[in-house]
Design a protein that fits this description.
- The chain has helices spanning 16-24, 37-58, 84-89, 101-113, 125-130, 150-159, 176-189, 206-215; strands at residues 72-76, 93-98, 119-122, 135-141, 161-172, 219-229, 234-238, 244-250.
- By secondary structure, it is α/β, with parallel strands linked by helices.
- The longest helix has 22 residues, at 37-58.
- It has one domain: Vaccinia Virus protein VP39 (Rossmann fold, 3-Layer(aba) Sandwich).
- Helix 6 (150-159) crosses helix 8 (206-215).
- It has an eight-stranded mixed beta sheet with strand order 3-2-1-4-5-8-6-7.
- The model has no long low-confidence stretch (mean pLDDT 90).
Length: 259
């Protein structure tokens, strides 16, 4: 899997520039018209995919009000908690982690205002994996394209999935179409995202992601596209994975924890 830049010399697989950039924007996480507006807009489509994938995998009716009740869910790179909060409202026991302490502070404060009990921590997924923490569901949404080694991050996330559990990853495909829409249009022409939000060489093709999931023991990757509909001003789940896409993969019940 291609990726720009070099891993942290301490093995953290963090790009300090990326961490600092998101930390500087931390106060904007819940501004639906600010820098994170695209994440607010794509949220409903992401949540729809997650509900359906979890429902299919665990035999749960995704239409239930508290469809995730009884499930421990980890969100890796949670930022200000934009996906943690709706997952908590679906009844899941949610842990959100992010390397940026500023992001965690914002996420914790907002969850408290909403009366939601979410376990937020300023830490890395590698630390949770090393401690042997396991979850029924691990999500990593719009994160792997921001680290030096996406494959290593996918592998670290997979270690936190309990045997029989599910992992969900979303990212941006490395295609010319994605370059035109996610960088040229979104950052430079429309101003939906700050310039420099994405680096094309860090985008991850769907085949690379499927290979990375399989290499760390996850089975049957299922992909779907996340596409913006300008006339309806909304995002939807579809079959077009050329730009934004999301994947779910299962860890077999007989999986043996790797060391």
């Amino acid at each position: 899997m291609q990726a720009g830049g070099k891993p942290d010399p301490y093995g953290n697989n963090l790009d300090s520039r990326e961490v600092d950039r998101f930390a500087a924007l931390s106060s904007k996480w819940w501004d639906q018209e600010g820098e994170f507006r695209p994440l607010h807009q794509i949220g409903a489509a992401r949540l729809s995919f997650i509900r359906d994938a979890v429902g299919d995998h665990f035999g749960i009716d995704p239409r239930k009000v508290r469809a995730l009740a009884g499930l421990k869910v980890l969100d890796v790179g949670c930022g200000g908690g934009l996906i943690c909060e709706p997952l908590a409202r679906l009844g899941g026991s949610i842990t959100g982690i992010d390397p940026g302490e500023e992001n965690i502070a914002v996420a914790s404060a907002h969850a408290k205002e909403q009366g939601l009990a979410i376990d937020y921590r300023a830490t890395r997924v590698e630390d949770l994996a090393a401690a042997g923490e396991l979850f029924e569901v691990t999500t990593c949404l719009e994160v792997i394209e921001h680290v030096p080694d996406p494959t290593a991050l996918v592998a670290a996330c997979a270690k936190t999935v309990r045997p029989g559990g599910l992992m969900i990853v979303s990212t941006i495909n490395r295609t010319l179409k994605a370059y035109g829409l996610a960088i040229i249009a979104a950052e430079h022409l429309l101003g939906w995202l700050p310039k420099g939000t994405h680096q094309y060489e860090r985008f991850v093709t769907s085949e690379e992601l499927k290979a990375a999931l399989r290499d760390c023991g996850m089975e049957n990757p299922r992909l779907a596209g996340l596409v913006y509909e300008p006339l309806r001003d909304r995002w939807s789940v579809c079959n077009d994975t050329d730009v934004n896409y999301i994947a779910a993969a299962a860890k077999p019940e007989t999986a043996v924890a790797s060391t």
